[in-house]
Amino acid sequence: MAAVLVLLVTLAVFGIGGATTPLQPHTSKSVDASLNELLALPLALLPFGLAGAEETMRRALKMRLGAAAKEQAGKLRGEALSNESQDEARPPIVFVPGLTSSNLMYKLTNAPTLLGCEETTGWDVLYPTPAINSTHDFLCYLQNVHTQFDWATNTFGNRKGEETDTVDFGTLRGTALNGYVLPGFEKQGWVENQTFFGAPFDWRLPGFAMTTFHTRMTQLIERAYSLNNNTRVVLIAASYGPEATLSFLHTKSQAWKDKYLSLFVAMSPLWSGANIAMAGFTSGIPTDPANPQSAALFVREVSQGLACLPWMFPRAGNTNTTWSKDEPIIVTPTKNYTAYDAIELVKDLGFYLKVPEVNFTLNDADLGVAGFKAPGVDTFVTYGTEVPTPVQFMYNESFVANAANVPPLFVANISVSGDSFVPVRSSLRGWYEWKTPQVESGHRLIYKAYANQVHASCISPQFDPVCFQEVVDLILKNTIPSGAQYVGPNEKDSF
Question: What are phi and psi of 303, to 5 degrees?
């Protein structure tokens, strides 16, 4: 069961003066090793269980790494920096991981319970999932991991008597990514706890509800700034991390952002959601080919109690980066559901008590159609293309309005260009909606597509050496990546 919950991500996905190390071309063997490790990452948000998904991603990664090796040949990118630049201090980085990447702890104090579950505990592990050996264990776990929505105040939190927290805030040690993200930046001269910091968060919540994360982020950024001689901080976030980071940026004044931040790098963002999140809510995702129905049921039962899932639903709208009334996402013999029909879908599945929560979440001020304000800091968005990404899911039975009834698994899906999880249009939303406000606030907006880049693989040179190095070059040399689209107060739009 623990292994299955790691795959919950299918819903939704991530030192000073030190010498740099040249990036090496990848061999076929390293492609296989890299994919196996990428598939194991919680933030990857990959569509496990879909027919041919793993093989599709293996081909995409092989093509991506092959293209990267060719691009590296004959170029200085990836080689050691000059002695002069090696001696220069690195600007501080705060890295924000993705969905399910942060480990979580919980503590119960006279918490209301059922079926004889524990009411009082010391601090214990909430995620990664502890051992689940029975239905009783599973029901107790659902009580602990699920979030609660207060209809009266429109706020999210834990059940009464429960506290939760992340592990080792300020580093990535309490995440699944430390061994992948940190080494790449260490080879480029950053030092943990001096110039490189991690910002884990409670990924069960939508970004606008992460008030503890917002407070801690403010304190961490200001501390990193002070520790580095008042050098402005670079924010890097992957997968679900960019959305959480954007919500944080929306809470800060322009004066504060101009003082403390120099750049926001958003890797594989889902600005307009991911269609597979709606399928996951409906029937779960078959994460285990040997036992697809029970695996899907596990994912469905856990994820339907997490506030983050509706926040990842595809966003309704009439632009080329949202989802229209003419684009069915969930298809049944008697009824189709578009992004506009999310509330109707929740009702038709029998989850009437979820309606206020889902409605409030989809109309939030950060990613909602009426919101989605620009970051107000120089921003570089990296995103993958040309990897088949599911956007429509077909069911051979109509739904029964009964929460206890589990719909059959979808029998087919239609895919478009994306990164295996996020369709291109979702990542592109910022390019079409932020250009003018970014320029008006005196900041650049840079966008670059990476063909055959699997979701969130820019986090490490092991997965995409070119994308990773272009992020580093932008930070250290202010070099805009070749082929990027950009606008800025002193630059022309190259789109």
Answer: -70, -30
CA atoms within 13 Å, Cβ hemisphere of 393: 27
User: In this structure, which amino acid lies at residue 321?
Assistant: T
Residue corresponding to tokens 């369709």:
423
From residue 385, give the alpha-carbon distance in Å to each of 300, 327, 420, 469: 28, 20, 9, 19
Q: Which of 414, 411, 447 is nearest to 432 (CA)?
A: 447
- Contacts (Cβ under 8 Å, ≥6 apart) of 251: 214
The phi and psi torsions of 17 (rounded to 5 degrees) equal 80, 0
Average pLDDT estimate for 72-79: 46
Predicted confidence at residue 391, as pLDDT, reads 95
Lowest mean pLDDT among 199-208, 231-240, 388-397, 409-418: 409-418
Query: How far apart (Å, rounded) are the C-alpha atoms in residues 324 and 39?
Result: 32
pLDDT mean over 144-158: 95
Nearest-CA neighbor of 280 among 133, 458, 100, 80? 100
Is pLDDT above 90 for 4?
no
- Tokens 């700034």 sit on residue: 225
Q: Is the bond into 128 cis (omega within 30 degrees of 0)?
A: yes
- Rounded distance between C-alpha atoms, residue 495 and residue 487, angstroms: 9
Tokens of 243: 């959305």
pTM score, whole prediction: 0.88
d(CA 326, CA 142): 36
